[in-house]
Amino acid sequence: MEALAAISLVAAIAQFVDYSHRLLSNTAEIVRSVDGATAEALKTENIFGHVQRLSEALAAPSAPGASGAVIPEPEATALRDLAALCRNECTALLDAVGSTKATGNGHSHYGSFKAALKVALGAKKLSTMQATIGTAQAAISLQVQKIIR
Question: Taking 70 as the threshold, does the pLDDT of residue 55 lie above it?
C-alpha cells in the first residue's frame, strides 16, 4: 500500500509543479505585454469581438434582401433568437476575458500574478462559453441553410 501512496504523492507534486509553471509563465507574459494580457486572451478577444458584431447584425430586424426576397417570419425570428443568444454569450465571454487583464500602467508583478491566476481559474468557464457559442454558430448556420433552400 505504501507504493500506491508514493505514486499518488509523486503525481500530486507533478501536477502542482505543472500548474505553478503555467501560472508563472502566464504572469511573465502578462508583465511583458503592452495590453496586460496573454496572447491567448488577446486572440480570444479579437475573434469573439468579431463574432459578437456579426451576431448583433443578425439579431437586428431583417429587411428585404438584395433580390427583394423577404425571409418568412418564423425563420427570421428563429435566426434573430439564435443570433441574440450568440451575441449575449460573446458579451459574457468578452467580459470574462477582460477581467483577466492586468490593470494600471507598468503592470506590476503582483497585478500580473493576479491576472494570471484569474486566467487559470477561469479557463474551464471560458471553455464552456466558447463551446456554447460554437453550438449557437452551428445552429445559426443550419437556420441560414434552411432559409436559403
Answer: yes
| Residue in 141, 125, 129 with CA at minimum distance from that of residue 87 | 129
DSSP for 14-83? HHHHHHHHHHHHHHHHHHH-SSSS-HHHHHHHHHHHHHHHHHHHHHSPP---TTS----HHHHHHHHHHH
Residue 67 confidence (pLDDT)? 53
Distance CA 13, CA 23 (A): 15
First and final C-alpha spacing in the chain: 65
Cβ atoms of residues 144 and 101 within 8 Å: no
Q: How many structural domains comprise the chain?
A: 1
Estimate the share of the chain in helix, then strand, then coil, as percent rounded to the nearest 5.
80, 0, 20
Q: Is the pLDDT of residue 1 over 70?
A: no
